[in-house]
Design a protein that fits this description.
The chain has five helices and six strands. By secondary structure, the protein is an alpha+beta fold. The two termini are 25 Å apart.
């Protein structure tokens, strides 16, 4: 699988391409991870992304649950944020005094064939709600607003869909933004589900 994510995000460095490298690494080793919850993926991506940034000597940090909007509610945070080390106060972004280089929102739908996840928890993401109430679409609208309001140079929303529950659903057309979202199919060999698909949405202002 090859991501079309090679544009620079305004900082002179393509953090989107770096993110794509991380996701490609996860794709290659997906059966090893055995993700159970969304936070498992967020942690793995944070670890890999931070490692690549450190390896290349870039002056940035990677944070999870970063408070990008004003308020104390955790829902006002973003799952991952790449922040310049020059930004020493997290309130600066919420106050409009600074911006993140990249923010990422994650969603995860585990395979419905898995025996290690209780069936009553599935589906994790409902696609039967009104289109604007579907959580992945809420994420996409959020990341667009972060870029449009100057809180981040670039933003990504990603849905990892094990077993193609959403990819193959009759409601799949209700997920994502047709202008900026794209499905990718991964062929991975796992005992209880044979394919993983991701819905990737990338948004930036050229």
């Amino acid at each position: 699988m090859e991501f079309c994510l090679n544009f620079e995000d305004g900082s002179g460095y393509s953090f989107v391409s770096l993110f794509a490298e991380v996701i490609e690494e996860i794709r290659r080793n997906y059966p090893i991870y055995r993700f159970v919850m969304e936070r498992d993926i967020v942690w793995e991506v944070q670890k890999l992304l931070a490692g690549k940034i450190k390896q290349q000597g870039l002056p940035y940090n990677v944070f999870n649950d970063y408070p990008i909007e004003k308020g104390r509610n955790r829902s006002l945070s973003v799952d991952l944020a790449v922040i310049s080390k020059d930004i020493t106060c997290h309130r600066d972004i919420a106050d409009g005094k600074a911006e993140a280089e990249l923010v990422v929102e994650f969603k995860f739908e585990p395979s419905h064939k898995r025996e290690d996840i209780i069936s009553h928890k599935l589906p994790v993401i409902s696609s039967r709600k009104n289109k604007e109430e579907i959580s992945i679409n809420i994420d996409i609208n959020r990341i667009k607003s972060f870029v449009d309001t100057g809180k981040s140079r670039t933003a990504i929303a990603i849905l990892i869909d094990e077993g193609g529950w959403h990819r193959n659903s009759k409601n799949s057309h209700r997920l994502g933004d047709p202008c900026i979202s794209k499905w990718y199919d991964w062929d991975v060999c796992i005992t209880d589900f044979d394919k993983v698909s991701i819905l990737l949405t990338t948004y930036t202002i050229p």
